Amino acid sequence: MCSSFRTLAVVPALLAVCLIVSSVQPQAAVRNKQDRAVTDITGGKRVRILLKSGCSSISAFVNGTAGIVCDGVAVANGVFAGDIRANGSSGGIEAIIQGKRYHGTSALVVIATSGDPVACFQISSKRYRGSLVLQSRRGGFDVINDLDIDDWLKGVLPAEIGASSPVEALKAQAVAARSEAVHKLARPPHAAEGYDFCTGVHCQAYKGMTDEGTISNAAVDGTRGIVLTVNGQVIDAVYHNVCGGATSSADDVWDGPPEPGIVPVFDSRSARGAPNLASDEAMARFINDASMDIFCNSSQPGYPNYAKKYFRWQKTLSAAELERVCGVGRVRDVVVTERRASGRVRKLRIEGERGSRTVEKELPIRNMFNLWSGLFVVRVLRSGNTVQSATFTGAGNGHGAGLCQMGARTMGFMGYSFTDILGHYYRGTRLERVY
Ligand SMILES: [Zn+2]
Ligand SMILES: [Zn+2]
């Protein structure tokens, strides 16, 4: 049982709905889970975002200008003002909308206009632009939001960098998020499950239109279709929360080859050259150096309170905690055995009374010790041949590759343009408009 849906009360835009519904072609609509739900009605790209999975029923409300498409066939359009009640079974999806019964074997789509005023849906107190897709899956259905990529970005910016960020930082975030999405749409991470992206940071955080802001929406509209490219290819413009002073390359933190445009840089206007923080000593000096004017330093003006704990942090694990998380009995040593030039720890060896193990890559290492980033030094306190405690002294939050959100905010406050910000974090890239 999923949460109830409600659409916002909107002023009907009759002309818009006629244009939109007439553009829905059966051959372009859902045929199976790999197909797009609806045609591209805006000239831009569309994304399919999973909101809920494995639903057996939903209670919804529609009040706005919309069309209804069952198994790829447009069956109704007009102004709707009433409940949607949908149930899923092995025979498909049955919905009652304004007292009328509709059935879809593979999918039932309610297309809301994305004009002004915007028709939208509501689920669990969140509103969404675009189309509501109920897609059959294992005797029930998934709830998918299918919408224009720039409408989706309007719900990504508030969730990712905050709608109150400076407009140039918001524009930079919009271009980065759009580039990452366009790049990944070539092979969507959730294609096998019938949609493109989830709503979490695994893909890009998305909250629908509830938290949209006027300035963040203007940042999306003002950069519409603009992406970062290298040699004409849209790059995977990943980004993160706080780099801690030096960004990482993609191959420092993930498997696979280096990504074009994603190289380590000092997050500073004074530091020059590429970081060389591969040794513990250089890393420790860097973390303790208060002289660098780092953009994502938590002492910068306008820094949000929630992120202040990330710039520099420390975490100590007791002997008992180490024994529990490491799984090699009582721990005898914790040693960084590979650190990249960006400072990120790539391999960490744990020696214990029941043997030793090596943990590889930034995320597994972070998860094991519950750390904010892979940019740290570790010091152990020994008693005899066992470790009494291990203290991780670190910097930043997240993988560190690409744009640093808190650094981009500071650059925005300092008067840098979005092209300056993108040029700082994505070296050797160009801006191009792809739609
Ligand atoms: Zn995902
Ligand atoms: Zn930074």
Structural summary, described in words:
- The chain contains 10 helices and 21 strands.
- The strands form 6 sheets. Strands 1-10-9-6-2-3-4-5 form an 8-stranded antiparallel beta sheet.
- The protein is globular.
- Strand 7 (121-123) and strand 8 form a beta hairpin.
- With 435 residues, it is of the alpha+beta class.
- The protein folds into 2 domains: 14-222, no CATH class; 238-435, no CATH class.
- The protein has helices spanning 14-22, 149-160, 167-185, 214-222, 250-253, 280-288, 319-326, 362-369, 405-414, 418-425, and strands at residues 46-55, 57-70, 73-89, 92-97, 100-104, 107-112, 121-123, 126-128, 131-137, 140-148, 226-230, 233-234, 239-240, 312-318, 331-339, 345-352, 355-360, 376-383, 386-395, 403-404, 430-433.
- Helix 3 (167-185) packs across helix 4 (214-222) and helix 3 packs antiparallel against helix 9 (405-414).
- The model is unreliable at 1-43 (pLDDT under 50).
- Bound molecules: zinc ion (2 copies).
- Residues 189-190, 197-198, 202-203 line the site of one zinc ion.
Write the layout of secondary structure elements.
Elements: H1 14-22, E1 46-55, E2 57-70, E3 73-89, E4 92-97, E5 100-104, E6 107-112, E7 121-123, E8 126-128, E9 131-137, E10 140-148, H2 149-160, H3 167-185, H4 214-222, E11 226-230, E12 233-234, E13 239-240, H5 250-253, H6 280-288, E14 312-318, H7 319-326, E15 331-339, E16 345-352, E17 355-360, H8 362-369, E18 376-383, E19 386-395, E20 403-404, H9 405-414, H10 418-425, E21 430-433
Parallel strand pairs: 13-20
Antiparallel strand pairs: 1-10, 2-3, 2-6, 3-4, 4-5, 6-9, 7-8, 9-10, 11-12, 11-21, 14-19, 15-16, 16-17, 18-19
The structure holds zinc ion (ZN) (2 copies).
